[in-house]
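Lab meeting tomorrow. Please check the following:
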Amino acid sequence: MGNSALKAHLETAQKTGVFQLTGKGLTEFPEDLQKLTSNLRTIDLSNNKIELLPPLIGKFSFLKSLGLNNNKLTALPEELCKLKKLETLHLNGNHLRQLPAAFGQLTALKTLSLSGNQLRTVPTQLCGLRHLDVVDLSKNQIQNVPDTVGELQAIELNLNQNQISQISVQISHCPRLKVLRLEENCLELSMLPQSILSDSQISLLAVEGNLFEIKKLRELEGYDKYMERFTATKKKFA
């Protein structure tokens, strides 16, 4: 893409606070964006070939939304964690194995999408985020859900299409968790904590495509309690 085209995009972004440049084959984060660190509220660079996010990302202190779906990122810089106003972060379809240690400093974060990466565990950094509503960790390589998950504040947690065979009973202690998606994993029925049914806030549990028949779920203790929550929620959204 020529300089004049980029310049036009930059001029528009200066007025609108939105910089969107998707599917242009970009191999790096546009350095020229640093002229707009105080303007930009939204950056969307999805469907490019960006391999590295430069440390200057930490200077966009007013950024609310960052989209980097379908790039070639293998790691994220610690500087990303300085974005105190960031509410939405889309990183689907990259090659990420872990999150920066300071990721818990993204205190405004509400929506986090990390589908289709190479994560092997549910990142513990997510548990400190108080405003997190939706976390998408589908299509990764997660094998177990650790005890720390009990502190997760999310309302919806998507773990579809992983390799999960073990889930900590602590998941039923998540204070706000209403939707738990565990489709197409490696769960035996005996490995599904019954407290999810009998003693949690979860009102939608999606477990199709595991190592048990769905109708067996109905035989578990606590299933009636779960159905009460499920029905009540359904009525609310009907």
Observations:
- The chain has two domains: 1-106, 119-237.
